[in-house]
Predict the 3D structure of the following.
Amino acid sequence: MRRRFVFKPLVFLLALVPAAWLVYGLLTNDLGANPAEAIQLTTGDWAIQFLLITLAVTPVRRLTGWNALVQYRRMLGLFALFYACLHFTSYIVLDRYFDWRSILGDVAKRPFITFGFAAFLLLVPLAWTSTKGSIRRLGRRWQTLHRLIYVSAILAAIHFIWKVKVVTGAPLVDAVILVILLGFRVIWALRQRTIRRAAGAVRPRKLPVN
């Protein structure tokens, strides 16, 4: 319990470091020749990173037995939305200058923006229903709903690759990590199903009562 009070604020502060770095860069004019692009790329990249870190919690917990990691998953997921909000806001303010007609045209006509916008929208209901009260109210439906994070992560990865127009470097690394994290879940689910079937096959049958 004491470790939780130490590590949770520490994780929170570490998650704010990229945002703090951007603020510092703005104040010191140290974001390069195109600060608007730097802000958009950095916030978008960290939105994807936090999505991947959030998705990594379950595999790491299952492989290591560190069940305490679960208590950080909600915070990490909310930071994914936080950086996605900064990314989307920087696009609205710094790229399109609140020109809503132009923004809607981009979403409708430019596929990589459509994918990014869809990835962002899918995170909103997940954040909204991330409370313990929502878990109790939704029951099994909560787990089904929160599987949308897989779709959001896939759309975000495609958005990133499409944006930079190259399948190398950071976009490729992110895509490979995402495939590994999703592949782990598929393999784990198949393994658990096999174990359940094997357990059912060896379970002793009840003899009929005469």
In short: The mean pLDDT is 88. Residues 2-199 form one domain.
